[in-house]
Design goal:
Elements: H1 2-11, E1 35-50, E2 54-69, E3 73-86, E4 97-99, E5 104-121, E6 126-137, E7 141-149, E8 152-176, E9 180-200, E10 210-214, E11 219-228, E12 233-241, E13 245-254
Antiparallel strand pairs: 1-2, 1-13, 2-3, 3-5, 4-7, 5-6, 6-8, 7-8, 8-9, 9-10, 9-11, 11-12, 12-13
Length: 255
């Protein structure tokens, strides 16, 4: 039965998803002749997956970005910190087991994102673009849980490591008065990580191992707007939906 508890804890993290921030408008915010842009952003990402039961993951990310682009293309990179919360990751179903908490949670882990996009304008108002964006987490997410199984106390550590994701999509853009860009489009994504449990259960056989976890939902849609502000600043707000809704904003400056 101890093996069943270990398997349950590992199964509950299946489907963990990651994100590296907004996709942004299909057209670069850099000057048409070419130039740099920088920004600071916040992204709230929520996802769900289904195994024996449905689980929800949540992330809050703060990041800075640097990009270079022209009227028709852009490349960009980001560095930031993120948390990871997996609801009910430690909830025990056997009546003989009890845990000190239900949710897995860790904070302040570092990630990096690289992306590129291309844009084709039909005219001054409408255009279409495509993008590819990937993220990788340089540090591991870990959390401890304690409890008892058949009256025997235990303490275990769950680690989620080598977390990465890749996204690609197509965006349709319309430029309206005051230079505001409205955009919408579909995207595909894939996320993967390794999860391992390190238990310490006296007098009980408790097997450990490492499993690969993957996002359960691989397609979604996004919608956003980019608003020019004073003196080269822009405000970009975007929402994404796949299994759950995610939203964020970034303030950028074009040099």
């Amino acid at each position: 039965m101890a093996i069943l508890l270990a398997a349950f804890i590992l199964v509950t993290v299946n489907g963990t998803a990651a994100a590296g921030g907004l996709f942004g408008p299909p057209q670069s915010i850099s000057k048409e002749a070419g130039g740099l842009n920088t920004g600071i952003g916040y992204w709230y990402h929520e996802d769900k997956y289904q195994n024996d039961s449905e689980r929800i993951t949540r992330q809050n990310q703060i990041y800075s970005q640097l990009g270079y682009g022209t009227k028709t293309w852009e490349i960009y990179g980001r560095v930031g910190v993120s948390d990871l919360k997996i609801l009910d990751a430690f909830r025990a179903t056997p009546s003989s087991a009890a845990t000190s908490k239900n949710d897995f949670e860790d904070h302040g882990e570092f990630f990096g994102t690289l992306g590129t996009k291309g844009f084709y304008p039909f005219n001054k108002t409408f255009g279409i673009g495509a993008f590819v964006q990937g993220s990788y987490y340089f540090t591991d997410f870990t959390d401890d849980v304690s409890g008892s199984f058949n009256g025997v106390p235990f303490r275990a550590n769950l680690k989620v490591k080598t977390l990465w994701d890749v996204n690609g999509g197509i965006g349709f853009q319309a430029t309206v008065p005051y230079g505001i860009k409205l955009y919408i489009g579909p995207y595909a994504s894939y996320s993967e990580a390794k999860a391992s449990l390190s238990p310490n259960l006296p007098d009980l056989k408790f097997e450990t191992g490492e499993v690969t976890i993957k996002s359960a939902t691989n397609i979604g849609g996004f919608i956003g707007l980019d608003v020019p502000l004073a003196k080269g600043f822009h405000l970009n707000v975007e929402g994404q939906f796949s299994a759950r809704f995610s939203v964020g904003a970034v303030v950028t400056y074009s040099y």
